[in-house]
Amino acid sequence: MSFDAVVIGAGLSGAVMAERMANVLNWKVLVLEQREHIAGNCFDENDEFGINVHRYGPHLLHSSNNDVWDYLSTFTAWHPYQHRVLAKINDILVPIPFNLTSIERCFSPQKATAMISALREHYGDGSKVPILELKQRVEPLLAELAEFIYRNVFVNYTCKQWGVAPDEIAPEVTARVPVVVSYDDRYFSDTYQALPSKGFTAMVSAMLAHPLITVELNTPMARRVRLDWEHHQVLLDGELFNGHTIYTGMLDTLVPDAQNLPYRALKFKHKHLNIKEFQPVATVNYPNDEAYTRITEFKHLSPTKHVGTSVVYEYPCEYQPKENVDPYYPLFTDSAIAAHCTYRNQLSKFARFIPLGRLAEYRYFDMDDAVANALKTFLKLQDQISFQR
Ligand code: UDP
């Protein structure tokens, strides 16, 4: 069987691209996935108790991008869901992002009132202030508040998550969880916030369920596809492949003698407990004393009648190739960004070879970013093809 395109990786990015190529271009697409399942890290499944769990930690679709929402909505119905997170600070639970309720829980009524007035005065009601920005304030009340939040919410969590202090990582990372000058206790404020009514795996399965798409699981790329670096050609089953290759893995694994790109990884501990409810919201963050960063209770994500409950603990760790953990978050050091750029340039010598997605493009993508990026990459490909015709 001859294929027009090979997609390496059946995660969200690979699935969007495969679906677009089959549906819009009428291409025959081979998708190779090394895991035993599709859907990448947003893979979810019913555990032995019938509770829908996310094997690789909680995945939540939140987006303000109409194109992404409309596109995904052709493959799934939705179950509306607004994510709420609490953090355990000095033995009390406070809303995260840290908001006006959090201030009232952590400070005396008098001080909380003064801090809230100062925040409103400086930033305006409803604004969102990155912690590293708030930390620049010299006014005593705001400086005290910033120091409290920095110490209790960000420093230790970030050291666990990234292995370094908040000021040593890109400011956009901690800015994802700003201090919120309102009582809105939702984790995200995007227009669309929902979970696929039958889960992410079912959604991705619907994307790949096209007669022109063949998915092979348990198939590492090397079993079928090889890069011939001497002639800059892609080989499929040992034969020259002139179609498009969409690659969603790590670039360093393809380039001869490349140094490993650094990533942070996560280890997950799934547990089932014979209690009705473990915690009041889907996710509780543990910024300080515990080795894990957060616990997610799946009951809060998708309704279940089960009397017990299933939870997952997340333990950040270093990514070591060959150990039994997957790479999650790129570490954006200058040398890593430069190395990634070099590998990308080397791979650009292969015609019709497209690196795509979080791993291949070395990006910190939310799910909607991954979909938007894949849709954009597809449109670029479509343009090139119509131009060549
Ligand atoms: N963060 C923190 N304390 C928290 C929540 C987040 O220090 O309670 C910081 C931490 O550096 C984290 C970043 O904010 O990596 C982004 O958090 P987010 O929840 O967006 O991370 P993700 O869900 O992508 O792992």
From TrEMBL:
<keyword id="KW-0285">Flavoprotein</keyword>
<dbReference type="InterPro" id="IPR015899">
    <property type="entry name" value="UDP-GalPyranose_mutase_C"/>
</dbReference>
<comment type="similarity">
    <text>Belongs to the UDP-galactopyranose/dTDP-fucopyranose mutase family.</text>
</comment>
<dbReference type="Pfam" id="PF03275">
    <property type="entry name" value="GLF"/>
</dbReference>
<dbReference type="GO" id="GO:0008767">
    <property type="term" value="F:UDP-galactopyranose mutase activity"/>
</dbReference>
<feature type="domain" description="UDP-galactopyranose mutase C-terminal">
    <location>
        <begin position="153"/>
        <end position="364"/>
    </location>
</feature>
<dbReference type="GO" id="GO:0050660">
    <property type="term" value="F:flavin adenine dinucleotide binding"/>
</dbReference>
<dbReference type="InterPro" id="IPR004379">
    <property type="entry name" value="UDP-GALP_mutase"/>
</dbReference>
<keyword id="KW-0274">FAD</keyword>
<keyword id="KW-0413">Isomerase</keyword>
<protein>
    <submittedName>
        <fullName>UDP-galactopyranose mutase</fullName>
    </submittedName>
</protein>
<dbReference type="GO" id="GO:0005829">
    <property type="term" value="C:cytosol"/>
</dbReference>
<dbReference type="Pfam" id="PF13450">
    <property type="entry name" value="NAD_binding_8"/>
</dbReference>
